[in-house]
Design brief:
The protein is an all-alpha fold. Helices cover about 75% and strands about 0% of the residues. The protein is built from 21 helices and no strands. Helix 6 (about 90-110) runs parallel beside helix 8. The relative contact order is 0.04.
């Protein structure tokens, strides 16, 4: 038995439409000698887990088992080819794929000595590359244009070559500026994702120094839509960390407007609109803008996920912000059903979302359960916090959960458990130096 199998994981990541397309493709185009590929694909699609022993048992007597590795490798290649063709025809994914596909076609026309046709296609591709702001593709087009000019017998080739070289310099300067702001966004995102144990000001100070070092109060020298997007996204994230919520909201809103008005292409990230909405919702929450928070939350719910990778991340985020919205509007009774539903589905989320997102689910659910005086549900969420590894959880949240455990037991009049838990909490606090004075006072109250 194998716990993980690359081919099986790949097939399981497909949605129903993709699975159906691949099945029809394999059925239509796979030759008689390759029917084993179709057999294996049909079998793996129906399985919920990968079990090599079960596979061998179910295909007992089939000759291809002796070459299973080869058949699996061939199937993986076929599935990749099918997905490429499938995405090429999908409007939401096609812009960048079609551009790259047509760039690859240039070598075909060129090798057939169809220089006029090659030149005509280069002009179309350059226009599209500028529109999508994919400057690496633009540079490839310029390389082809240079080659066609050198091979053609047109008059004044030097004049045309000079234009190509000037355009290349411009494309390179745009690429340098774009990469600069990409790097800045990734650096601030890395600071944001660092696990901080407690509410220390270390992260805030690091961000303030970052803003000063890179002079981000100044706008970029070259301000194309995509560079502007990275610039505002960097500032939105930075101001969120240092709790300048009004500025964070302004830059998050700017990112959203840019995303609505321009067709951005991010390699490997087709869900950028979802991420922008998430940042915007966080800043709206910080600014207590309840009505706008609700409106943008509805937009996020209706924004489709293009891949499965962010499915649970999006669902968890929506759950957290639905509870936030309930808290802001003080409509607490609406939270009961939401929390019970999450409790039933929680195991599905554990392996698919980050530790910090899980902690947010536990903490906000615990908070609302206490407000509703649903101590059984509060106990469940609190136990989840306490069961986390010490290295994975903020120590102030761990301290808070220890005290809440005593409060829940006190409300349920479980005196024996309170006494045992009190000693456990006291030992925990004695072993930790950074205990907040409020928690120490609270523990003194329980002692009395």
């Amino acid at each position: 038995m194998s716990k993980q199998d690359d081919l099986f994981s790949f097939i399981q990541s497909l949605n129903q439409s993709e699975k159906r397309y691949i099945h029809l493709y394999l059925k239509t185009f796979v030759g008689q000698k390759e029917t084993n590929v179709l057999k294996l694909y049909t079998y793996l699609v129906k399985q919920s887990t990968y079990n090599i022993e079960k596979l061998k048992k179910d295909f007992k007597g089939e000759p291809f088992l002796r070459q299973l590795y080869k058949v699996k490798k061939e199937l993986k290649e076929k599935v990749s080819q099918c997905l490429y063709l499938y995405n090429l025809g999908m409007e939401k994914n096609s812009s960048l794929l079609r551009l790259k596909h047509r760039i690859n076609e240039l070598s075909i026309f060129y090798n057939k000595s169809l220089l006029h046709q090659t030149s005509k296609q280069i002009k179309q591709l350059k226009k599209q590359a500028y529109k999508l702001e994919t400057y690496t593709d633009l540079l490839i087009c310029l390389d082809w244009e240079e080659r066609v000019i050198l091979d053609s017998k047109e008059r004044k080739p030097l004049e045309k070559l000079s234009k190509v070289y000037e355009e290349r310099k411009k494309a390179l300067s745009l690429l340098v500026e774009l990469n600069k702001y990409k790097e800045l966004l990734n650096q601030i995102a890395a600071i944001s994702n660092i696990q901080t144990h407690g509410r220390s000001g270390v992260k805030k100070q690091e961000v303030i120094q970052f803003l000063e070092k890179h002079q981000l109060h100044k706008k970029p020298d070259i301000l194309t839509p995509i560079i502007s997007f990275y610039y505002h996204n960097t500032l939105a994230t930075a101001y969120m960390i240092i709790s300048k919520s009004a500025k964070s909201y302004l830059h998050s809103e700017k990112c959203w407007q840019l995303a609505l008005n321009h067709q951005f292409v991010f390699i490997g990230d087709n869900n950028y609109k979802i991420k922008i909405l998430m940042n915007l919702l966080n800043s709206l929450h910080q600014n207590r803008m309840t009505d706008k928070h609700y409106s943008y939350l509805e937009l996020l719910k209706n924004e489709p996920e293009i891949d499965r990778l962010h499915h649970y991340e999006k669902k968890a985020f929506i759950y957290i912000h639905e509870l936030i919205n309930i808290n802001m509007k003080r409509e607490y009774e609406k939270g009961d059903q939401l929390m019970l539903s999450m409790k039933q589905q929680l195991d599905e989320y554990v392996d698919h979302i980050s530790t910090s997102q899980l902690q947010n689910i536990y903490a906000i659910s615990l908070n609302l359960s206490l407000v509703l005086e649903n101590y059984d549900l509060a106990y469940f969420w609190n136990e989840r916090i306490l069961s986390q590894k010490v290295s994975d959880i903020r120590f102030d949240l761990k301290q808070f959960a220890q005290l809440i455990q005593l409060l829940i037991l006190h409300q349920n009049a479980q005196e024996i458990d309170i006494e045992n838990n009190f000693r456990s909490v006291q030992r925990y606090f004695n072993q930790n130096k950074n205990v907040h004075p409020f928690y120490t006072c609270s523990l003194w109250y329980f002692k009395k």
